[in-house]
Amino acid sequence: MKEIFENVFFKEGRIYTKNLTPGISVYGEKLVVEDGIEYREWNPFRSKLGGAIKKGLSEMPLKRGSDVLYLGASTGTTVSHVSDIVEKGSVYGVEISQKMMQKLLELAELRENIIPILADARKPHEYEEIGKVDVIYQDVAQPDQDRILMINANMFLKKGGYAMLCIKSQSIDVTKKPKDVFEEVKRNLSSLFEVVQSINLEPYDKEHEFVLLRKVK
Ligand SMILES: C[S@@+](CC[C@H](N)C(=O)[O-])C[C@H]1O[C@@H](n2cnc3c(N)ncnc32)[C@H](O)[C@@H]1O
């Protein structure tokens, strides 16, 4: 295994995180033991962050000890890998759907660093007690996802902190070309963020762009 980012590993075309809860697979992913350490295979077709790494993510802001606000946590597929990476950091997983939250709660029972929050990411005051974070990860697939990121970043993201944003053009405007939608979202965020990298997620996800942003104010 070659460590390509903190706690992210690569071997023979596949990516892995070191399993924080050995023996337990979260979404059916393979568990691999090497030199006495157990790793979880990271499926880029199931996780956009996995896809972004496979497509050449240049910088990884998630590190051991990072505190992360994750908007659109769903059942915790990607959250689980983020949890592996940050170890003693915290992953605040905000999810609006009660149904998805059920699974996330089960995952959080096994992983102490996941704090599930049943809330609407449009109402950050409902979870204001979390305080400042190093990274915001957002995958909500909503038409106003730029505004959702801005209000959360203004409230929680440290200056110089990073946002990792998954943009789904179909959720924003089906009549426009995906490229134009992606550019518009980035323009709307430019008062607060600089774009570090934009990654087209094909073939892992169609009409999705993964954007790494740095908060400049
Ligand atoms: C594409 S899925 C996220 C998948 C997840 N990021 C992963 O990789 O495992 C989008 C999720 O965002 C949630 N969501 C949508 N709008 C939201 C909102 N306003 N606040 C919080 N969660 C929201 C949906 O319920 C859904 O679970």
What does this structure look like?
With 217 residues, this protein is an alpha/beta fold. The chain has one domain (43-215): Rossmann fold. The chain contains six helices and twelve strands. The protein has helices at 48-54, 77-86, 98-110, 145-156, 169-172, 178-188, and strands spanning 2-5, 8-11, 14-18, 31-34, 37-42, 67-71, 90-95, 114-118, 133-138, 157-168, 193-200, 208-215. The N and C termini lie far apart (38 Å). The mean pLDDT is 97. The structure holds S-adenosylmethionine. S-adenosylmethionine (SAM) is lined by residues 47-48, 71-72, 74, 77-78, 94-97, 100, 120-122, 139-142.
Residue fraction in strands: 25-35%
The CATH superfamily is identified as: Vaccinia Virus protein VP39
Mean of the pLDDT scores?
97
Number of helices: 6
The quaternary structure here is: single chain
User: What's the CATH architecture?
Assistant: 3-Layer(aba) Sandwich
Structure classification: alpha/beta
Q: Main β-sheet: number of strands, strand sense, barrel status?
A: 7 strands, mixed
Major beta sheet, strand line-up? 8-7-6-9-10-12-11
Shape: globular
Instruction: Classify the fold: give the CATH topology.
Output: Rossmann fold
- Residue ranges: pLDDT <50 for 5 or more in a row? none
| Euclidean distance between termini CA atoms | 38 Å
**What is the top-level CATH class?**
Alpha Beta
Number of strands: 12
Instruction: Quickly count the domains.
Output: 1
Identify the bound ligands: S-adenosylmethionine
